[in-house]
Amino acid sequence: MKLVIHLAQGDLSPIDTKPPSGDILRDSFRMAFPDVVRLGFSNVDHIVLGDSDHGDYRQVWDTLGSPETMAAVAESGAPHMFLELPYYRQGLVDEFQSKVAAGEAVNVGEFAQRFEHEDDVAHNISQWRFRTGEETQTFLQNSVAPLLVNATRFGVDVNMLDHENGRNQFEARNDARKAVIETRDEIVRIRDTENASDPSVAARLTQLRGQFQDQKAAYMQSRLDYYSARFDDQNLAQTVNGVAQGQKSLTMLGFVHGSRLNDFEEYLQGGALKIDIATSRASYEQDYAQRMDTINAVSPAFGNDPPELVYFIDEGVLATTVNTPPALARQIENIASGAPDITPNDTDPDQTPKIDTGMKWN
């Protein structure tokens, strides 16, 4: 759990056994996304947005980067934003924001080309995020650049947070998988085209089957190595803590960074609220279940720690989850019903739990 709320005795029932990974949603409330941002920052210092699908990026990034959202971030007193883009492009982003702040013209096409290719960086973002350079350029020009412009206009500095954890392990996993497939295909070829009763052929098949089992075990280990490295989020949180220096921040990462035990927001200084954001309910439920089942099949130790809230862009709806603290759920219900908003700033202990951003539920 990430949101810290002290409740009256008996008001909180910790979830001892996590639900099936796809069964996490509860009630839904119509709410504009900028109001979701304001709601979050009225409770905690850090909002962690979980992007459920890097490939289906346009609606998510356009929602985050809109003038209305940036206004809500700024009005909430959060001067810092962190994005899952390569850390080695921070200087280019700083240069872009400085030009916008100074009223200078910016060349979006040039920015996008430099972002992807400058200094001949081998690990350009096409390899991580999209299949072709054209898709990457569209993303940078139509989603990233406008976000940077709007952030600058509202006084929000944008930071690149992807340290490319797991890059080497990612490549090792792919090599291990390739070896498994090649050996499997060779076994099938020999079995289907040669005389298996021939002693030399039989010996070759026995050797290959043993090799296949060894390679399969190595592949499974490589998957664990990759996920363990990719989701080692302590250094990412330390980057946020170092930049924010106690100030509020909004971070957007792939949702798995915040849906496991001992994950990203657990290392942030101050209270954090995890809100997943998705284009649609159907795509989110499928993506969440598949991704969490996949990583827990590799190692159950990753666990399943659902977000406190989920926002669906196409519906304009905020959904509570099995992890939504009761006090936060009541606050959302009051907002949705038009009743007076019972916020953490109120003082009636019978009505409003006190929020302590310095501790976390176990």
Strand order of the largest sheet: 2-9-8-7-3-6-4-5
Order of helices and strands: EEHEHHEHHHHEHHHEEHEEHE
Separation, N- and C-terminal Cα atoms? 7 Å
Mean pLDDT comes to: 80
Rounded to the nearest angstrom, the radius of gyration is: 24 Å
In DSSP terms (H or I, runs of 4 or more residues), the helix count works out at: 12
- Class inferred from helices and paired strands: alpha/beta
Characterize the structure shown.
By secondary structure, the chain is α/β, with parallel strands linked by helices. The protein contains 12 helices and 10 strands. Helix 2 packs parallel to helix 7, helix 5 packs across helix 7 and helix 8 packs antiparallel against helix 9. The chain is globular and about 80 Å long.
What brief labels describe this structure?
single chain, 362 residues
Structural topology:
Layout: E1 5-6, E2 25-30, H1 33-41, E3 46-51, H2 58-64, H3 67-75, E4 80-86, H4 90-101, H5 108-117, H6 125-129, H7 133-153, E5 157-162, H8 167-193, H9 199-230, H10 234-244, E6 249-254, E7 272-278, H11 281-298, E8 309-312, E9 317-321, H12 326-337, E10 354-355
Parallel strand pairs: 3-6, 3-7, 4-5, 4-6, 7-8
Antiparallel strand pairs: 1-10, 2-9, 8-9
Helix pairs in contact: 1-3, 2-7, 4-7, 5-7, 8-9
Could you give a short description of this structure?
The chain has 362 residues and is of the alpha/beta class. The protein contains 12 helices and 10 strands. Strands 2-9-8-7-3-6-4-5 form an 8-stranded mixed beta sheet, sandwiched between helices. Strands 1-10 form a two-stranded antiparallel sheet.
